[in-house]
Amino acid sequence: MKQKILNYQPFNEQEEKDKELLLKVIEQKDVLTRKNTIGHFTVSCWVLNQSHDKVLMCYHKIYNSWCWLGGHVDGQKDFKKVALKEFQEESGLKHVQFLKDDPFSIEVLTVNGHIKNGVYVSSHLHYNITYLMEADDQEKLIIKEDENKGLQWFDFEEALKASTEPWLVENVYKKLNKKIEKGYH
Q1: pTM of this prediction?
Q2: Closest by CA position to 67, among listed 37, 114, 109
Q3: How is residue 53 annotated by DSSP?
Q4: Spatial separation of the C-alpha atoms in residues 43 and 74, rounded to whole Å
Q5: Domains of the chain by start residue, with CATH
Q6: Average of pLDDT values for 37-66?
Q7: If you ran DSSP here, which 8-state letter would residue 131 be given?
Q8: Beta strand pairing status for 96-98 and 54-60?
Q9: pLDDT of residue 185
Q10: What is the pLDDT of residues 7-46, one digit of tens each?
């Protein structure tokens, strides 16, 4: 993954700064696992329908917000494989393809302290790699009840309004939509 990050061409200043940080932390001990309680790698999926005019979002139980799909890499080095697994587990969809082989976006995300499976998890960072994917919006969605309360296809503007996480909306979701509009896929 280090080479993919090195080769990544930042879209904006946020990605430039976050790329620098990702390259610093990629060599840290346990950064691919949650054992590193300061920060660890995650993947996210920005999933478009076949017409590329809607995005799939889930209503995440911990964040109480509509958000992208994804999860922790949990020691895996093939981040694309993790993204595919997380997407399929969280959506129930089996027919999906990557629109871009390389990462579509990179972010360093702050995660507030929260309760997961009855245990408190302290605030920490997610060193996130986002993949752009396409799925069939007619295929039946299946909620992963231990993680989300809902799944829904939104047009790009609706997706921004549905999320109750202002920082993600302003700094990530808008950026992802802008990249799609400008043909970065």
Answers
A1: 0.93
A2: 109
A3: S
A4: 10
A5: 2-181 (3.90.79.10)
A6: 94
A7: E
A8: unpaired
A9: 66
A10: 999 999 999 999 999 999 998 889 999 999 999 999 999 9
